[in-house]
Amino acid sequence: MRFDASASSPLDAFQRPGSQGAQPAAGWVPPRPAAPPPWRVELLRASAESGANLAASGRGEAVLACGSCHGERGVSEPGGAYPRLAGLSADYVAKQLDDYASGARENEVMSSMAKALSVRERAGLALHFASLPAPEAPGRAGDGEAERRGRELHALGDQALGTPACGNCHAPRGSAGTDAIPGLYGQPAEYVAAQLRAWREGTRRNDEAGVMAAIASRLRDEDLDALGAWYAAEQPKQ
Question: Signal peptide location in the record (predicted)?
């Protein structure tokens, strides 16, 4: 078996004999564009302080205070539909805000607010949330069938379904230093499962390499819920 670090997808990163099935693509990172996008340039110019002020106060009716949905310190309600932002990489948050503004990622509320902000203001928000500590999750996942399945998919993937281990890219706390890969530990279960369904159904498409859509399309409904339950209950490793 041979690893190809230049592959465009973790599903293709290994040359796999037919008898081996799916193998985890450890070490794969998404390809980067030759020139940095504007939001990445603005991360060098913006400040977390300006982002903190905007997150706390918003801007009239056009831009709501971020804490009204995502929590005062970037930690949303455990059982809710909104993601936690605290502790996510600045690259990831900035890219998602940029995608909302451009229409690459669709959400009526988020798209409207992102469009009302400048690239630098969005970068400031990203720096602010990246500066906040990621919370401890409610507790370790249990030993029920769903939790065991979520742990298996995270650690090993599923050879029969042809999916790599989620943990190879979504490492503890993080993003392997890329803008494309968020941390999932401590995210609300409903949010994780909903995003996986959006990838599978094609209503979320802001993944240039098409990795998440390809993986989610191979997972069953119970797998999506199991992954949500696992990540919501697991505590990030230090």
Answer: none
